[in-house]
C-alpha cells in the first residue's frame, strides 16, 4: 500500500499533494505524467482541537480465503442485477410507484419490487387509514422476509380548492351546458351542480373569467355571480372527476389567488402522526408555498420520531416556483408535480421549468423526483406513446434522481408493463449518457460551510473524477448518515456507488439517490477491517471478481476519538 497524500490541521497551513507510482489496473503509472493536486490556505486553528486527515491510497486487496461471520444487506433485486449485468449494467435512476387498488395485494407488491420499485408512494387523498396501514405492513414484511429494500413514502393531501360532484363517479360536462358552482353543503348530488370546498372561492372572480378544471379537462366561463356561488357555461366539454382541482383565468392569464390556507391541514397532521407510528421513510408535502412549512415539519419530526424521516417538498404552484431555492434548501428532496404545476403555468413552460428545478436540486445536493403523467396512456393501454418514452428519456438525460408512476400503477391495468418501460428506457438512456461522457459538462456549486464539510465535498468531487478517469468498476462508500454517498451521487459517476451503512434509516433514505445501492451492514472504527470484511462478503457471493477495481471513500468518525475526522480515498484491485 502506498500512501500518497496527507492533509492535516496541525499548523496554520493545509497542504495536499498526491503522486501515483504504483501499478493500477495493470498499467504502470510511473511511465505516465505525474498526477498531483495541491491546495494551500492559511487557517487560524489556535482555538480548534479538530484534526482533519485525508488520505489517497492505491493498493491491491488479496483474498485471505477465510470468510468470517457477518452479513451484507444486499437486496435480492440489486444482487440479481449485479450478477446478471455487472457493475455498469446496474440501473441508476430510481423508480417510485404509487400504490392503489390495482397493486395493493402482497403478490402485486412483490411483483413491483422484483421489477425494480425502489420507493412505494401512498397518496393520502385516497383510501382509508386501515388500507394504508395494511399496505405499509405488507411492504415491510416483504423487506424483512424476502430480502427486498423498498422505502415507503406518504404524500399529504394538502390544502387546496377542490370540487365535489356528490358521487364517486365522473360526470361529463357537455358544451354550452349551464352549471352552478356553490359552497353550499348538501348530501348526495344535484344535476349540474358542483360543490367547492372553500367558502371564499368566488372572491375576486368576475363575469367573463374562466374556470379550468384539472388543468384543462374541462373549461367553464363565468356568466354571473349568485350569492357566494357562480353560474357558468361549459365552453370546453370534458370529464369532471371527483376531487378535481380548479383554477381561475382572466384574459389568458392565471388569476392569482391567495386563500391564506396553511400548507398542512389538520388531516395532514393526523396522517403525519400515523406515518410516524408506522415507521415510514419519506413524507411528501403538497402545495408548499415557502420554506416555513418544511422547516416546521422537520423540527416536529426531530422531536417526535425515533428515526430520521426525510421531508420532500412538492413543487406544483407559482408560489413554490417563486421561492424555489429556499424550499429546496429547507427540504430533504423535491418532487416535480407536473400535473398540478401545469394548472398554474402555461403548458409550453413545463419542460424548461422541469429542467431548471432538476438543475437547482443537483446544485444543492437534493434528490429530485419527476412525477405526473410520465406514461399516462398506460392507465388504459398496454404500450406507451412514443412521445411518452421520449419524455421519460429526457428526464433521465437531465439526471433526475427518480421517476414516478401515479395512476399508471395505482389504478391502471398495466402497472407492471409501465414499470418495465421506465426501467428499460432509463437504463438505455443512462448508457447513452455514459457514452457521451456528459458528466464533465456539469458545474457544481460549493455547499460546505465548515472546513470538514468542504473537505468531504472536495474529496467526493475528486473521487468521482478519479473513478471516471481511471475506469474503476465501482465506488464503495462507508457512511453512517449518508452524506458522502449523496455527494458522490450528486456528481453522477459512471460506476455505481455502493453505500455501506449500519443505520437502517440511512439505508432507506439512500434508496432515492441516483446511482446509489445502499447496503446495511455492521461497521466499526477500523476502516481497513470494514473494507476487508465487505469485499470478502461480496466476493463470496460471486459479485466481484479478480482484477475488478474499486474506489473506496469513507466518512466514518471513530467513536474513540470524537474530535478527529478521518476521511480517505483508496483505489484497489481485487486479486
TrEMBL record:
Residue ranges annotated for the Pyruvate kinase barrel domain, each copy included: 91-418
| Domain Pyruvate kinase C-terminal per the UniProt entry, residue ranges | 457-555
Write out the GO cellular component annotations.
chloroplast stroma
For this protein's source organism, the top of the classification is: Eukaryota, Viridiplantae, Streptophyta, Embryophyta, Tracheophyta
UniProt cofactor(s): Mg(2+); K(+)
| EC numbers, comma separated | 2.7.1.40
Keyword annotations for this protein, in alphabetical order, are: ATP-binding, Glycolysis, Kinase, Magnesium, Metal-binding, Nucleotide-binding, Pyruvate, Transferase
Q: What class of enzyme is it?
A: transferase
Show the SUPFAM superfamilies listed in the entry. Phosphoenolpyruvate/pyruvate domain, PK beta-barrel domain-like, PK C-terminal domain-like
The family database entries (NCBIfam families) matched by this protein are listed as: pyruv_kin (TIGR01064)
Q: Which InterPro entries match?
A: Pyr_Knase (IPR001697), Pyrv/PenolPyrv_kinase-like_dom (IPR015813), Pyrv_kinase-like_dom_sf (IPR040442), Pyrv_Knase-like_insert_dom_sf (IPR011037), Pyrv_Knase_AS (IPR018209), Pyrv_Knase_brl (IPR015793), Pyrv_Knase_C (IPR015795), Pyrv_Knase_C_sf (IPR036918)
Pathway noted in the entry: Carbohydrate degradation; glycolysis; pyruvate from D-glyceraldehyde 3-phosphate: step 5/5
What is the protein name stated in its UniProt record?
Answer: Pyruvate kinase
* Repeat keyword on record: no
* Native source species: Solanum stoloniferum
Q: Which GO MF terms does the UniProt record name?
A: ATP binding; kinase activity; magnesium ion binding; potassium ion binding; pyruvate kinase activity
Family matches, as PROSITE patterns: PYRUVATE_KINASE
Question: A Pfam family name for this chain?
Answer: PK_C
Reactions listed under catalytic activity: pyruvate + ATP = phosphoenolpyruvate + ADP + H(+)
Q: Which family does it belong to?
A: Belongs to the pyruvate kinase family.
TM ranges are none
Amino acid at each position: 500500500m502506498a500512501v500518497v497524500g496527507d492533509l492535516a490541521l496541525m499548523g496554520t497551513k493545509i497542504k495536499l499533494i498526491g503522486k501515483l507510482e504504483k501499478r493500477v489496473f495493470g498499467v504502470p503509472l510511473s511511465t505516465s505524467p505525474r498526477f498531483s493536486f495541491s491546495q494551500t490556505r492559511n487557517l487560524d486553528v489556535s482555538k480548534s482541537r479538530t484534526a482533519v486527515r485525508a488520505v489517497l491510497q492505491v493498493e491491491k486487496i488479496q483474498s485471505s480465503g477465510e470468510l468470517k461471520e457477518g452479513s451484507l444487506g444486499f437486496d435480492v433485486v440489486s444482487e440479481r442485477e449485479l450478477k446478471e449485468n455487472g457493475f455498469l449494467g446496474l440501473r441508476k435512476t430510481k423508480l417510485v410507484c404509487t400504490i392503489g387498488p390495482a397493486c395493493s395485494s402482497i403478490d402485486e407488491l412483490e411483483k413491483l419490487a422484483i421489477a425494480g420499485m425502489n420507493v412505494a408512494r401512498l397518496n393520502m387523498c385516497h383510501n382509508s387509514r386501515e388500507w394504508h396501514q395494511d399496505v405499509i405492513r405488507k411492504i415491510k414484511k416483504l423487506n424483512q422476509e424476502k430480502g427486498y429494500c423498498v422505502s415507503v413514502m406518504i404524500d399529504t393531501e394538502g390544502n387546496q380548492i377542490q370540487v365535489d360532484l356528490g358521487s364517486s363517479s365522473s360526470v361529463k360536462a357537455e358544451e354550452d351546458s349551464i352549471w352552478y358552482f356553490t359552497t353550499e353543503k348538501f348530501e348526495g348530488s344535484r344535476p349540474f351542480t358542483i360543490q367547492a370546498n372553500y367558502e371564499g372561492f368566488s372572491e375576486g372572480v368576475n363575469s367573463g373569467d374562466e374556470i379550468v378544471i384539472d388543468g384543462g379537462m374541462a373549461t367553464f366561463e363565468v356568466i354571473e355571480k349568485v350569492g357566494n356561488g357562480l353560474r357558468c357555461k361549459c365552453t370546453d366539454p370534458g370529464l369532471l372527476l371527483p376531487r378535481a382541482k380548479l383554477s381561475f383565468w382572466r384574459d389568458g392569464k392565471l388569476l392569482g389567488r391567495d386563500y391564506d390556507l396553511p400548507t398542512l391541514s389538520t388531516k395532514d397532521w393526523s396522517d403525519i402522526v400515523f406515518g410516524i407510528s408506522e415507521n415510514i421513510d419519506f413524507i411528501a408535502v403538497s402545495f408548499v408555498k415557502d420554506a416555513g412549512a418544511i422547516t416546521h415539519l422537520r423540527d416536529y419530526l426531530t422531536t417526535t420520531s425515533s428515526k430520521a424521516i426525510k421531508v420532500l417538498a412538492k413543487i406544483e404552484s407559482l408560489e413554490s416556483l417563486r421561492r424555489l431555492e429556499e424550499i429546496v434548501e429547507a427540504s430533504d428532496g423535491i418532487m416535480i408535480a407536473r400535473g398540478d404545476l401545469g394548472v398554474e403555468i402555461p403548458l409550453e413552460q413545463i419542460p424548461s421549468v422541469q429542467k431548471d428545478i432538476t438543475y437547482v436540486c443537483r446544485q444543492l445536493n437534493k434528490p429530485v423526483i419527476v412525477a405526473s403523467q410520465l406514461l399516462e396512456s398506460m392507465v388504459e393501454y398496454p404500450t406507451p406513446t412514443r412521445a411518452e418514452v421520449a419524455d421519460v428519456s429526457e428526464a433521465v438525460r437531465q439526471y433526475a434522481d427518480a421517476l414516478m408512476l401515479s395512476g399508471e400503477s395505482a389504478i391502471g391495468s398495466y402497472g407492471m408493463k409501465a414499470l418495465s418501460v421506465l426501467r428499460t428506457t432509463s437504463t438505455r438512456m443512462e448508457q447513452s449518457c455514459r457514452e457521451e461522457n456528459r458528466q464533465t459538462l456539469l458545474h457544481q456549486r460549493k455547499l460546505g460551510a465548515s472546513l470538514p464539510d468542504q473537505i468531504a465535498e472536495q474529496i467526493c468531487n475528486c473521487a468521482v473524477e478519479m473513478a471516471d478517469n481511471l475506469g474503476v468498476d465501482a465506488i464503495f462508500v462507508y457512511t453512517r448518515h449518508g452524506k458522502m454517498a449523496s455527494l458522490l451521487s450528486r456528481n453522477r459517476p459512471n460506476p455505481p456507488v455502493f453505500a455501506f451503512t449500519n443505520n437502517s434509516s440511512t439505508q432507506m433514505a439512500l434508496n432515492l439517490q441516483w446511482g446509489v445501492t445502499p447496503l446495511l451492514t455492521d461497521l466499526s472504527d477500523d476502516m481497513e477491517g470494514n473494507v476487508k470484511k465487505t469485499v470478502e462478503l461480496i466476493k463470496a457471493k460471486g459479485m466481484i471478481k479478480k482484477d475488478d477495481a474499486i474506489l473506496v471513500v469513507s466518512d466514518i468518525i471513530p467513536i474513540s476519538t470524537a474530535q478527529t475526522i478521518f476521511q480517505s480515498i483508496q483505489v484497489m484491485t481485487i486479486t
